Amino acid sequence: MNYGQSLPPAALPTLPSMAGEAVDESQLKGLSKYFNSQTNRGRANTAKATYAFFGVVILYNILKPKKSTAAK
């Protein structure tokens, strides 16, 4: 074994694309156009939707009518 030799290009693993790298957005359709992990905009939209969802749940729990005790 020669540990000093480098691997040929075909033997190197390919890495998945990271956010912010070039992505052909014309290929994205439907909800994946707005909520995807390949673009910074898609990741930001996903985070905003998550915050909005939890905000609505918290507001619902704060503003819902309190249960009144039944009169006996």
UniProtKB/TrEMBL annotation:
The keyword Mitochondrion is assigned to this record: yes
The keyword Membrane is assigned to this record: yes
Membrane topology recorded in Swiss-Prot or TrEMBL: Single-pass membrane protein
Top-level taxon of origin: Eukaryota
One cellular-component annotation, GO: mitochondrial membrane
TM regions (residue ranges): 46-63
Protein name: Up-regulated during skeletal muscle growth protein 5
Organism the protein comes from: Leptidea sinapis
